[in-house]
Amino acid sequence: MLNRIRTFFDQYLVADSAATRDPAQAARCAAAALLLEMAHMDAAITPEEQVAIFDTVRESFGLSPEQAHELIACADEEREQATDYHQFTSLINAHFDQAQRAALVEQLWRVAYTNLVLCKHEEYLVRKVANLLHVPHQTFIAAKHRVSDGILG
Fold first, then answer.
1. Helices 137-152 & 98-113 angle (0-180, nearest 10)
2. What is the rounded CA–CA span in Å between residue 136 and residue 141?
3. Three-class HEC string of 58-102
4. DSSP letter string, the chain
5. Quick one: which of 51, 52, 62, 46 has its CA closest to 108?
6. Core-most of 45, 91, 107, 134, by most CB within 10 Å?
7. How far is the C-alpha of 92 from the C-alpha of 73, rounded, in Å?
8. At residue 49, what are phi and psi to the nearest 5 degrees?
9. pLDDT tens digit string along 76-112?
């Protein structure tokens, strides 16, 4: 699993092999894994959720479509093998600033609302991740309202 992540970063994101040992690169994978986890919270991943995750990963990290697909594949492997969310949030806390962590919470809301219905498991996940990322409750709620108002009108 780590070899696949290293291969991805060697191939697409860094030319310097010393930089591949930088755990900040793995934080992107962790963020993508949480987005994928959100899509798995209800019965099945819809095509709309897949597109939302792909677009979010691509735009947030400035990746080409090929790079975004590879990062999502790596993140899905990590997500499947994960035993808790702490392994992802600890990487994100170490390498994302407060604004990036708040943006991730908003992105999680976007994936949750993609099918226009928010299930209790999706809300639980965003709340749990926001707490683990030390995103203030006010920021968490504001992000939810921005997304729900924008999607549900």
1. 40
2. 9
3. HHHHCCCHHHHHHHHHHHHHHHHHCCCCHHHHHHHHHHCCHHHHH
4. -HHHHHHHIIIII-S-GGGGG-HHHHHHHHHHHHHHHHHTSSSS--HHHHHHHHHHHHHHHT--HHHHHHHHHHHHHHHHH-S-SHHHHHHHHHHS-HHHHHHHHHHHHHHHHTTS---HHHHHHHHHHHHHTT--HHHHHHHHHHHHHHHH-
5. 52
6. 107
7. 18
8. -65, -40
9. 999 999 999 999 999 999 999 999 999 999 999 999 9
pLDDT in tens, 13-55: 444 433 344 476 799 999 999 999 999 998 788 999 999 999 9
- Answer whether 107's CB lies under 8 Å from 35's CB: yes
Query: What CA–CA distance (Å, rounded) separates 45 from 36?
Result: 9
